[in-house]
Amino acid sequence: LQVMESEIRRCSAIVHNMLTFARATPMNLAWHDANAVVDRCVRLVQHKVDLANVQLHLELEPELPPLWCDAAQLEQLLLALTINAIEAMPRGGNLWLRSRSLPESRELELEVQDDGVGIPAAIVPRLFEPFQTTKESGGVGLGLAVARQIVERHQGRIAVSSEPGRGARFVITLPLGGPQNQAGTQKQGEAQ
Question: Is residue 57 within 8 Å of residue 49, measured between CB atoms?
């Protein structure tokens, strides 16, 4: 009975995650300070960072231009990447969170990098597909698919580079445009 109860809970969690992935929530776009979003993410994971013996390195560009975004979704994206990075360092390690503006392209970059176990090269091309996981604990594999969805709804890009045994680096590039550039994205996101 205990095994059945445990498996029912696991199945329930999988169904809940699938519904969350399939359901596009409306975008709540406004001007936000990207560094403040990173700071909120850090506060939420600080205890996990301490328990995992991970050294956190914040390299946030001061005076970033404001970002037209849904701050809650951006925080969800950063949390997913940060928690994945922490879990990729079972014996401790280093985690870098970076922000920088790219004035020449009118974009902003957010970066999450770790020096953990890395991602096998064969998996990297499929990493953002639903149900793709590298976790031995049997993760559902929706975190990075949702992360990509959030980035795309913000008209941005997400890239990953990794080498087994040397960690992973995720770079999110977001446009600095305002309401006139993002109005189409909001309507698209609400229609999905």
Answer: no
